[in-house]
């Protein structure tokens, strides 16, 4: 595969993915970086999954959804009406749409300034590993619920005679958090104890056991790893294609529509209640009966700021774009991995911070500050995926070759065989993925209703955990909108 992130000029009428879009597209000038993906997947089944503890919101009346009949929602008019409108077609937005379509009779529209996988989702590594998670943390319950739902989805696909690998890129890799020193191993032993106490099948691997699992590692005699053999990973692009195809199957009922390449330009609010009645895009007006969900990744903060600029609403949503690079190598025979790996320092992979000295007047961040931490896995096609970097450099998505070189050098410290290969010789067989993670100070996403703006909900700030937290987030938003009991306490994520 040729190197680089694919650039698509969005003022042309080309279809970049080879997929026929079911809705009209309003193209604007400019360029968007996207990741290509396949759309040869099956319909997502409705599945059941055991619930955890319930958190019930007190209310007088529970909303009972009504059957929505087909109407003029996809007609030639520039005005449409939906129960729920979702702004953002990444993994968060699409799974929220899926939740409403499968578990209610509400109609749903998805709006995006680009297309699915144009942002952080398409540039991600695809892992939903748990070995680096912290039991008892504020995100722990949501992470475990999301993982439970992903496992249930993969199982339901299998039960219908389909292959989860083909449908989702679902692959049992196991995950390892790798250390090189006695101090690292002390941390890893405690991590394993925490995970086991939380009910997960984790184990500590001594140096000999680690090298038996991953012979390519050369880390010295003090190395070790926390290991979760049952962990899995996904192919984000394939999972998105699967979910999107399932969502589109509801279009014939008049319950689903997509408005891609249509940036949101404004909210239309009620004069009496102040609630959102509609949103305007560059080409359409979408009237809203029940809810609008802002799930626009790192653009959510600036979008909300622009939309409520003239309203008497105070909203602090300091989500920032956190740039990341991944290096993907095709037909790379020099290194083969049996599991997904990340270095123990990944847990504290937080050193890309806002600079106190403004070196870039446009972004307010120091472009030279970057955090590099080794992650490595093989994807469903056998390609080697190496990461990862974190930078706060504004909305730039340009490939930085110096960052790629640092990722390669860091990986070489764990896999010395890579030192025998020149990175420059791999230019024709590499792909570089660049994405903007939606970073929130404090590390928690914002999930919940927008104070002072009825019908408006936020689901943003998942940073590098969008894929792993997606299904739990979708369930949480769904239950908030319909005032259903919650399976996960939403309080830590309140806006």
Please tell me what the overall shape is: globular
Overall tally of structural domains: 2
Which sheet architecture does the biggest sheet show? 8 strands, mixed
Structural class: alpha+beta
Helical residues, percent: 10-25%
Beta-strand fraction estimate: 15-25%
N-to-C SSE string, H for helix and E for strand:
EEEHEHHEEHEHEEHEEEEHEEEEHEEEH
In CATH, the architecture of the largest domain is 3-Layer(bba) Sandwich
CATH fold type of the largest domain: FAD/NAD(P)-binding domain
Poorly predicted ranges: 1-77, 350-368
For the secondary structure, the number of strands is: 20
Main CATH class of the largest domain: Alpha Beta
CATH superfamily of the largest domain: FAD/NAD(P)-binding domain
Alpha carbon gap, first and last residue:
42 Å
> How many helices in DSSP terms?
9
> Gyration radius, to the nearest Å?
22 Å
The average pLDDT is 82
Provide a descriptive summary of the structure in words.
There is one protein chain. β11 and β12 (276-281) form a beta hairpin. α1 (91-103) packs parallel to α6, α1 (91-103) crosses α9 (466-481) and α2 (140-159) crosses α9 (466-481). Helix content is 23%, strand content 23%. It is an alpha+beta fold and 495 residues long. The protein has helices spanning 91-103, 140-159, 164-168, 182-197, 207-213, 236-248, 300-307, 401-414, 466-481, and strands at residues 6-9, 31-34, 79-87, 108-111, 171-172, 175-179, 203-205, 224-228, 232-233, 256-259, 264-269, 276-281, 285-294, 320-329, 340-343, 370-378, 384-391, 430-439, 446-449, 456-460. The longest helix is centred in the N-terminal third of the chain and has 20 residues, at 140-159. The protein is globular. The model is unreliable at 1-77 and 350-368 (pLDDT under 50). It has 9 helices and 20 strands. Strands 3, 4, 10, 11, 12, 13, 19 and 20 form an 8-stranded mixed β-sheet that branches. It has an 8-stranded mixed β-sheet with strand order 7-8-6-15-16-17-14-18. The chain has 2 domains: 8-124 and 236-318 and 443-493, FAD/NAD(P)-binding domain; 171-230 and 319-439, D-Amino Acid Oxidase, subunit A, domain 2 (D-Amino Acid Oxidase, Chain A, domain 2), CATH 3.30.9.10.
